[in-house]
């Protein structure tokens, strides 16, 4: 077991982790943050996307011990107070979710994309979402929601 | 604008479901963490066809954290019936015995042979590695056409054949002497549905022998009845809950081995059992769709009037018959002629076993398979006749409704010309054709093509009498209950079971429109057999056509009882009351009025009701649809094909759909977006590839190409509207239309892009290699 410290959604946690514990399992099982979903086992679907030190990562592709010292934001930490984050609000406004299973990862990927100024137009948004799969929406409304928040040109 | 225009039927109301899902508060099965839960892992066969020689579980049983290990033989007596198939399509259909774990022989890669139960997932996975199963490997049969031929390898030797059934539908005689006959054979490969939430189940034993089962299922009610039967328990002892379910697309419309195993083992161990499917496991253990080889023939007069259709379909069942496996081809049986009036009609299905994952319902289920071969063949026939492909379609469209079609059903409504007209308004076909010609003239490496699909489909499953006539084991009705609560709010219980479709929002809009309230005042309960004892769940685009109609019928009963209460309270005759949007007014006395909410309060207090009337305002309706639902429309795809690499990319997609009355255009557009994406994926990207030994070669999301946003354009949608005359407020199904329409439009576009090079056929999916080979072969 390895001692690991991480700050998740502004709460500091001191954990004892097995070397093989994936970050997503640490979040879900040890911290009970079940908003981050697991959708595949090949780092393909992006349902488990979280922000690690401000950048989107697939939490199934990191070991918990690799997050030692990191600051992590999950979907549960995105809304402030009662207010949805602008990306969450835009997903609601544009009907950018159906079953909702990919949504936490998709929202976190979008937050990162917008923060990195990589959502200048719809083609950039589509390219930037390549690692996040949705089976319900056909992406159309997801792209519209992100474009609205990012103020994309086309 | 009246109030109902902002939130009633037809309003683009934002979804009520979104809040928890956007905040990471979904209730998916994997999020359940019940005290004392043990984890179940399935040990699966690495071989597609083998006899089980021995299974040694000693090392696994001794491993850290292991609670129990069971083989198929250990659990054989737990099953009071074999795994259920609810659709014996013919009297002599062959159905091999199928148990949740194989006992003596495995028949597809992924067939379960043992289960390991441990305190943690990690311990269970570790111990599963220690289960030592020995196999005597048998030759496998994978190809559906080869499996259908006599004399080859048999999947189930005891059946003496790979043919499960032959099911014909014939009306009229094929015109062998027609001016023109075209005939072509199409392969539609197996597909992996890939709902983003894999399956999962938690079974909790309750005091007194009851079991509560949470499952990522589309069909909690069907699951309850059939799980109880298989486990030999009373239906009343089993409660099934479908919590938030992360997509289904038909793949969660089934009764699966893991649900039965979790239930049986929870009873044995007396503790909750949890099983969560891994994605690569999903590729093997959750049903596949399609896997048809179809030969279609069309006969026509020289001026393009189609006189006869003959389809010969070989459909893979996979290794076993799951819940409705054999019936899937039949769901398309009546629409091989699509929106066209074709008087002579013949369809024959041969269901065959192969050593592959069982097939069953995947979005469209039987209808995409029909529409694909028809719309491809319409283009071939147009070419043969030297006629414009849209002109050929127009000459054969059904134009008068209700229309009794050769296959025997009646289409209540539609307007196929209107949809095609609207499509052409949006498409700019002349400009596209000019661009295509310019690229051809300059021998551009990137060519463009335009493909069409004018379609109809039958959904809204289904009139119970018709289901009975085609040997389906259950009915096709749906139920709804409306309870008018004393505070002026409404509680709805529906027997349908959403998994992303937005029923809570749409059902609230229907009640709001009919009974005069705000949608936020409506609570919609679903997906729990203890709150909705009757229900037939969600599949086949049935929820709105059947469940929505049941809800409307319950609303009519509410209005009927409220009318008597209001008449009594206002001391007028019920005949003198007029009703609109929740309010009764008295003819000639506009100052006298009372709402449904007011009637609900009066019914709750029961201080002053008509003599003999029961207190409370509540109604339940069960609706059996008089007909299927018949949406239709016209779709066009524009593709760009790199003739150097064979890479085909979709650059535009225009979809015009006629789904009758739209309850919520946001939701309907979302269904169309998602549906056409799965059809496009079928055409360009997706195929479950087996090697000759039956190994699934691309059973991960890294290998099986579910398209991302990067592969797709934004879509252009519009609608025409012919109200369903066989539905109380004119609605038709929409969940599968896109998937049914899209694949042929895309493939027709790829072929159109390359037609000047002599390419006439490309098998789905049109991968770069297949496209490149087609170009090279055309050069020969």
Topology:
The complex is a heterodimer of chains A (154) and B (780).
Chain A: E1 2-8, E2 11-17, H1 23-30, E3 49-52, E4 55-58, E5 71-73, H2 86-93, H3 103-115, H4 122-128, H5 140-150
Parallel strand pairs in A: 1-5
Antiparallel strand pairs in A: 1-2, 3-4, 3-5
Helix pairs in contact in A: 2-5
Chain B: H1 3-7, H2 18-22, E1 38-44, E2 50-56, H3 58-61, E3 66-71, H4 72-75, E4 105-106, E5 112-118, H5 121-128, E6 132-137, H6 144-148, E7 163-171, E8 180-191, E9 200-205, E10 211-215, H7 220-231, E11 238-241, H8 257-269, E12 273-276, H9 279-285, E13 289-300, E14 306-318, E15 344-353, H10 367-385, H11 389-396, E16 403-404, E17 410-411, H12 416-427, H13 429-441, E18 446-456, H14 464-469, E19 478-484, E20 490-494, H15 503-515, E21 522-525, H16 543-570, E22 577-580, E23 583-586, E24 589-595, H17 596-605, E25 617-623, E26 632-642, E27 648-658, H18 665-684, E28 716-719, H19 737-754, H20 768-779
Parallel strand pairs in B: 1-12, 10-11, 14-15, 20-21, 27-28
Antiparallel strand pairs in B: 1-5, 2-4, 2-6, 3-5, 7-15, 8-13, 9-10, 9-12, 13-14, 16-17, 18-26, 19-20, 19-25, 22-23, 23-24, 26-27
Helix pairs in contact in B: 10-19, 15-16, 16-17, 18-19
């Amino acid at each position: 077991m390895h001692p690991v410290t991480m700050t998740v959604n502004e709460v500091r946690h001191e954990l004892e982790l097995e070397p093989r514990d994936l970050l997503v399992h640490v979040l879900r099982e040890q911290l009970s943050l079940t908003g981050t979903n697991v959708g595949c086992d090949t780092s393909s679907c992006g349902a488990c996307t979280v922000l690690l030190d401000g950048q989107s990562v697939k939490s199934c592709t990191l070991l918990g011990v690799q997050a030692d010292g990191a600051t992590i934001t999950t979907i549960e930490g995105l809304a402030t107070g009662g207010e949805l984050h602008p990306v969450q609000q835009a997903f609601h406004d544009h009907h950018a979710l159906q079953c909702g299973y990919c949504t936490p990862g998709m929202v976190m990927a979008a937050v990162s994309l917008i923060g990195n100024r990589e959502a200048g137009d719809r083609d950039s948004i589509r390219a930037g979402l390549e690692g996040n799969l949705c089976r319900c929406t056909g992406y159309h409304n997801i792209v519209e929601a992100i474009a609205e928040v990012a103020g994309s040109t086309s | 604008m009246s109030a109902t225009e902002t939130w009633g039927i037809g309003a683009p109301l934002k979804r009520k479901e979104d809040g928890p899902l956007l905040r990471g508060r979904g209730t998916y099965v994997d999020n359940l963490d019940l005290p004392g839960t043990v984890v179940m892992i399935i040990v699966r066969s690495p071989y597609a066809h083998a006899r089980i020689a021995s299974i040694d579980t000693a090392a696994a049983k001794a491993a850290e954290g292991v609670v129990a290990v069971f083989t198929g033989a250990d659990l054989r007596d737990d099953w009071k019936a074999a795994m259920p198939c609810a659709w014996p399509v013919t009297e002599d259909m062959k159905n091999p015995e199928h148990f949740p774990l194989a006992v003596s022989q495995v028949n597809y890669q992924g067939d379960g042979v043992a289960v390991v139960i441990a305190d943690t997932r990690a311990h269970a996975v570790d111990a599963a590695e220690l289960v030592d199963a020995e196999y005597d490997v048998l030759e496998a049969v994978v190809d559906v056409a080869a499996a259908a031929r006599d004399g080859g390898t048999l999947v189930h030797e005891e059946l003496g054949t790979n043919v499960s059934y032959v099911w014909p539908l014939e009306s009229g005689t094929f015109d062998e002497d027609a001016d023109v006959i075209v005939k072509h054979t199409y392969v539609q490969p197996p597909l992996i549905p890939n709902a983003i939430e894999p399956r999962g189940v938690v079974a909790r034993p309750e005091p007194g022998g009851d079991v509560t089962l949470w499952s990522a299922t589309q069909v909690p009610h069907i699951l309850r009845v059939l799980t109880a039967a298989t486990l030999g328990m009373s239906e009343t002892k089993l409660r099934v809950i479908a919590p938030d379910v992360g997509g289904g697309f038909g793949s969660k419309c089934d009764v699966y081995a893991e649900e039965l195993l979790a239930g049986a083992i929870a009873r044995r161990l007396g503790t909750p059992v949890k099983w969560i499917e891994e994605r690569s496991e999903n590729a093997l253990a959750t049903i596949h769709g399609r896997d048809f080889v179809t030969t279609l023939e069309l006969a026509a007069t020289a001026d393009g009037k189609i006189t006869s259709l003959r389809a010969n379909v070989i459909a893979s069942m996979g290794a076993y018959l799951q819940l409705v496996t054999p019936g899937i081809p039949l769901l398309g049986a009546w629409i091989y002629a699509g929106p066209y009036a074709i008087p002579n009609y013949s369809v024959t299905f041969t269901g065959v076993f192969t050593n592959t994952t069982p097939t069953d319902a995947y979005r469209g289920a039987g209808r995409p398979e029909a529409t694909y071969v028809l719309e491809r063949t319409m283009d071939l026939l147009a070419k043969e006749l030297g006629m414009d492909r849209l002109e050929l379609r127009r000459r054969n469209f059904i134009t008068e409704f209700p229309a009794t079609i050769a296959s025997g059903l009646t289409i209540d409504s539609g307007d196929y010309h209107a949809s095609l007209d609207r499509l052409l308004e949006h498409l700019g076909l002349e400009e596209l054709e000019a661009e295509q010609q310019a690229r051809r003239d300059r021998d551009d490496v990137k060519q463009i093509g335009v493909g069409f699909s004018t379609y109809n489909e039958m959904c809204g499953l289904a009139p119970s009498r018709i289901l009975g006539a085609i040997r389906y084991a259950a009915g096709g009705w749906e139920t709804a209950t409306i309870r008018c609560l004393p505070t002026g709010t409404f509680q709805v219980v529906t027997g349908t079971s959403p998994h992303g479709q937005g029923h809570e929002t749409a059902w609230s809009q229907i009640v709001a429109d009919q009974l005069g309230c705000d949608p936020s005042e409506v609570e919609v309960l679903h997906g729990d057999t203890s709150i909705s004892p009757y229900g037939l769940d969600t599949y086949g685009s049935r929820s709105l056509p059947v469940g929505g109609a049941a809800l409307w019928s319950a609303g009519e009963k509410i209005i009927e009882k409220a009318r008597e209460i209001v008449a009594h309270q206002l001391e007028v005759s019920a005949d003198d009351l007029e009703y609109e949007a929740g309010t009764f007014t008295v003819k000639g006395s506009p100052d006298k009025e009372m709402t449904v909410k007011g009637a609900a309060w009066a019914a709750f207090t029961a201080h002053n009701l008509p003599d003999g009337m029961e207190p409370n305002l509540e109604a339940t309706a069960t609706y059996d649809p008089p007909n299927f639902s018949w949406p239709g429309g016209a779709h066009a795809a524009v593709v760009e094909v790199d003739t150097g690499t064979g890479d085909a990319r979709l650059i535009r997609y225009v979809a015009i759909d006629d789904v009758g009355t739209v309850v919520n255009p946001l939701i309907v557009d979302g269904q169309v977006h998602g549906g056409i994406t799965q059809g496009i994926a079928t055409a360009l990207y997706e195929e479950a590839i087996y090697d000759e030994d039956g190994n699934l070669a691309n059973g991960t999301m890294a290998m099986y190409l579910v398209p991302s946003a990067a592969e797709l354009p934004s879509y252009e949608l519009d609608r025409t509207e012919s109200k369903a005359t066989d539905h109380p407020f004119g609605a038709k199904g929409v969940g599968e239309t896109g998937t049914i329409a899209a694949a042929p439009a895309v493939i027709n576009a790829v072929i159109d892009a390359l037609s000047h090079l002599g390419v006439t056929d490309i098998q789905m999916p049109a991968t770069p290699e297949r496209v490149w080979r087609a170009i090279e072969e055309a050069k020969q």
